[in-house]
Amino acid sequence: MDALKNKRGFICDMDGVIYHGARLLDGSKAFVQWLTAQGKRFLFLTNSSARSPRELRQRLLHMGIDVSEDHFITSAMATAHFIAAQRPGGRVYVIGDSGLYQALYEAGLSVDESQPDYVVVGETRSYNYEKIEIAIQLVRNGAKLIGTNPDLTGPTERGIAPACRALIAPIEMSTQRQAYYIGKPNPLIMRHALQLLGCQREETVIIGDRMDTDIVAGIESGIDTALVLSGITRESDLPQYAYQPHHVLKDVSVIAGEQPGKAAKGTMP
Fold first, then answer.
1. Residue 108: which domain range?
2. Is residue 13 annotated as a catalytic residue, yes or no?
3. pLDDT tens, 52-101?
4. Which residues in 226-249 are b (16+ Cβ under 10 Å) and which e?
5. Is residue 194 domain-shared with residue 177, that is, in the same domain?
6. Is 70 a catalytic residue?
7. Which of 128, 155, 181 is the last residue of a domain?
8. What pTM was estimated for this model as a whole?
């Protein structure tokens, strides 16, 4: 636990780590207060591209956690960063919500529905057949296909909903083109997070609730990992994976020292 607490930088997933839907998880507020009091550098990282940092800040604020917008990184931001590096001032056709549009605009990219360099797909409730049809024709005409993240599903207040990879599948199948996905577990988003943190990977830990995104992202990026059992992955799931987290914790309250007696399932060798 000392090795974990002594880390300088913390990259934290949100759903399943800090909250479930609209419910704040026990110990989350104390954990964020501990990060601030200890002078840690921290980012909340989400694979969702739908919300902007401002919207995410408001979401946490409504739950009683007040952090500034610069403590958030989304797959939309990482996607915009990637495209701007590949094609500065590039043109994009977008299927997504406000968080994705804002990130692309802030990166100096422009929306073009006739001759874009990229077709970019993220989570959205405005998904429809017409947009899919346009995207298919643009990709067939040479536009590169980008997905903000490879998640098939995501949690909502109503249960499970289709996420980016499910939404982009009709375009991939119709064009026989494989999308390039930016979000976790792609090391691209992890390197971008480290740049924003101003930390080296050796002094950073990623905390998440999913073995197939959060933990493998850390493993592939050379960043220490902490799995919390407050979300998707259960302790009984661990034997099925070829890789293992460095730490397995009940929840983030363990790090803040809120529940020392109930805490850790142990530190993995």
1. 88-181
2. yes
3. 999 999 999 999 999 999 999 999 999 999 999 999 999 999 999 999 99
4. bbbbbbbbeeeebeeeeeebbbbb
5. no
6. no
7. 181
8. 0.89
